[in-house]
Amino acid sequence: MSESWHGGAAAVATLTFDVDAETPILAHGRGYAGHATTMSHQAYGPDVGLPRILGLLDELAVPATFFVPGWVAEQRPGLAASIAERGHEVAHHSYSHRPPTSLTPEEERADFVRALEVFAAQGVEISGHRAALWEATWRTAGLVAEHGLLYDSSLMGDDRPYIVETGAGRVVELPVHWSLDDWEQYAYLPAPNVGAVIESPAKVLELWRTELDGMRRYRCLFNLCVHPFLSGRPGRVEALRRFLEYALERGDVRFARCRDVARAALADSGLPVRPHRPPVVDEETYPA
Amino acid sequence: MSESWHGGAAAVATLTFDVDAETPILAHGRGYAGHATTMSHQAYGPDVGLPRILGLLDELAVPATFFVPGWVAEQRPGLAASIAERGHEVAHHSYSHRPPTSLTPEEERADFVRALEVFAAQGVEISGHRAALWEATWRTAGLVAEHGLLYDSSLMGDDRPYIVETGAGRVVELPVHWSLDDWEQYAYLPAPNVGAVIESPAKVLELWRTELDGMRRYRCLFNLCVHPFLSGRPGRVEALRRFLEYALERGDVRFARCRDVARAALADSGLPVRPHRPPVVDEETYPA
Amino acid sequence: MSESWHGGAAAVATLTFDVDAETPILAHGRGYAGHATTMSHQAYGPDVGLPRILGLLDELAVPATFFVPGWVAEQRPGLAASIAERGHEVAHHSYSHRPPTSLTPEEERADFVRALEVFAAQGVEISGHRAALWEATWRTAGLVAEHGLLYDSSLMGDDRPYIVETGAGRVVELPVHWSLDDWEQYAYLPAPNVGAVIESPAKVLELWRTELDGMRRYRCLFNLCVHPFLSGRPGRVEALRRFLEYALERGDVRFARCRDVARAALADSGLPVRPHRPPVVDEETYPA
Amino acid sequence: MSESWHGGAAAVATLTFDVDAETPILAHGRGYAGHATTMSHQAYGPDVGLPRILGLLDELAVPATFFVPGWVAEQRPGLAASIAERGHEVAHHSYSHRPPTSLTPEEERADFVRALEVFAAQGVEISGHRAALWEATWRTAGLVAEHGLLYDSSLMGDDRPYIVETGAGRVVELPVHWSLDDWEQYAYLPAPNVGAVIESPAKVLELWRTELDGMRRYRCLFNLCVHPFLSGRPGRVEALRRFLEYALERGDVRFARCRDVARAALADSGLPVRPHRPPVVDEETYPA
Asked: Domain A11-274 - what CATH class?
């Protein structure tokens, strides 16, 4: 007999926090290291936003998963371990936050392995992975399987967990989506171009509530992605708080860490297997 | 005596779903086939969004029209036929989803014909056409007439059906508009650039309701364009559901497939004929 | 003794409609003449939006001013005269809608004169001018004065009428602003880039009401700019209708044609004179 | 014993007005001096928006800080002094408004000093500085310390005042943030690209209220940045008025000039010292 991945809940919510700090900006060019305001804007994430968010999660007793680039864990020793000590999960979010689609296969592998080495050296247990910028290649899931992780959280082929068969074994995919990412709602910088519109937390709260309610109808995985340098701001943390209160009040939403959902999914024999290969493209039909 | 195209309704609603899958992305360059997350984001349309939308239409007993690129029908045999079997219309949406304005006349014709061949081979009856990206050339409507289709749905010269005279015969135009397309409201990708702002379903619902109410005053064609990879998401399907409930509750809105509206329009002798030729442009006035 | 320009109203509203048709697109390159959908999107303005708007103005008995490029008047003989016959004002909106800042002085003058010739040949009386794209040069107001027009409506140096002294005499400026233009709220095309976000009419209605209420406090000129190809759509005309009803219900807003406001302003000896000359810029301070 | 920087208030609000006039546009290229409409759009700030805002502050008896580029103070003699005479603070906002990150160290220093000389010549006392475009370099805070100013207001490393140690001494940082800047909400020009979406004042009011309420929970510095050429418009001044009324009605928000907050912060021995140095970046990890 097989347990269902959702354990009977109308929807399962995985709160995920991408603790990117300076990495997504440096990935646009190391010259940005000289932009003091921009660097301080990014450092706000681990320095101010993260403790505030951890406090909120404690207050509401909600477990979460923190995706941390290896570079960030290295620059701020103790950060990853202190998150894990509070009962949350720390997961692999590349070393440098350069998007895999911009790397050679060798570079992607090296970046993947380097992050694992950082976490191993810090004694932080890693069960899953999320590609930088959600720009996975067709090799990414194979790296996840090959290194013995349970799950990936970078693809968008469903809104429920599914199985990806790689040459190196199967992986649970906990799919993400741009509409459940605070980046598209809040990110703004004059340079590099990371976004151009700063939305109100009220709009974001409404967007998340609407998606949660839809997901409760269709029994989905509400896989929310939040960045401490963005949603750590006071008014935005308020919106996050109100969203969490709303979800908790529904009574039918289960909050879990990604690794717990992945384990439940692996034990569910009814999980769909989605094909994992590039479309075959005719060179005459589509331009280079 | 002539029947009016609207049959006495305050407004006629054609729900149209553009089942684009990977095509609009590959049209930006075949290299995107290597972007696994982006490809999964597009595959979500036929794999997850489409069945969910078909279920909603069954539930509300509303007929619809599905514009399918030939490439998509070819890659997913059975998809087009299964839509038609549920009582909906399948229509021509190019082969490759490359915009006609980017093609030579020969390329546009070849792409047009190739899609017809795919549908013929699958036994799917085609009555109408919609240009990829709504970027028709002045030749497009002629191709529609030449191949014996009843209607085109790519132009914006009115908000009621009208007649286009082409060298190859007359065609009914069922006009579209950017404001009744979910793409401009929801589409986001880091690359290629398909849009940069993710709006709330609540805003989109309000936009559609406002336009429907205006159209009920002016007796128009509410020709809604929805993409399963976008509006198939749970919260957005909820907005679509609420919109359909709102329209049904008005009591004066008629839902129909495009081919049915086109037939009614052809039987209406009062339909306007809109000129269909490029403006004559003075080379000294306007730059190249 | 001098009459005040506002005649005692809390705010004066000039409804202005820029009947641009195809011109702003052709100004991006004459190749767009081959884009059938885009051309039909623009033709919708004079063909569908304009009659609908004229009907609304009749219904509410509100006078307005229509800024028409000479090219549009030439291509659609009778259009300008038919607007004037309904009691509205027709005004000069360049010949080609190329922005003056992109032209040489000779080109700007030739374009300016050519439009006047079109209107003269059609027997349409012209009292004022608005620069294409609101991109006036420091020569533009001089051309207005030199050709005996009363007013210009292209600058943004105030939110009340003011006097501009040019080498060729004084001109009344009826200032405009981007926030009172429907273009930034509604315009979208895949190419050329004319805008990327399609807002809800409810947002636009709120924006206009808020500005009107602010202007009623400060006794300003509410100089609204609407494009028939954009705001002629059913849901947007509803928003315009509701805005006009709101303004009429205030009881303290005076609606007038631009030429009537300009005449009242010229008779008001208290009107401010704003300096009209380019800033002196140090070449070492600012880059080329 | 040490006083706390907030004096017991739930949040401290510094209203700051960046009186940029033409400078941010000229920083894109001096050719824009020839764009008459754009220059008038910028001149509206000091000519119309500023007096209106000063009137509102008088009415509500709220003190504020005005950051003025040296070039603006030079071009409009008397402007800076007249602000100071009304009890507000005038502060250093560069000479030319070119972003420091685009300048050589020598250029940044020269621009910094030149502004100080302008204010000294006008007898205007300067206590603090804000970098143009909030694009400080790692040298900027050192210039502030070296020239004996109390504070900088250009970084984003916290949402409460903090200490920055520079080679030339310590400086109080009064941090800013893009979400408390009216530029991202309102700025629009066809060229140069300064922003593309014009939001409703109702949205902006909601954004500011939400952030203020969040900051009242976490005892932060609400450091609002407003531009007279943007928020001086009638409807936007209404939103500012309503925001100020809302904040005053809370009863627990203290309004202060930046220099007063900086002095209080210097007297607070509990203020955090945030590291102020560029991240060390591996050349192999991040691209040039």
From this structure: alpha beta
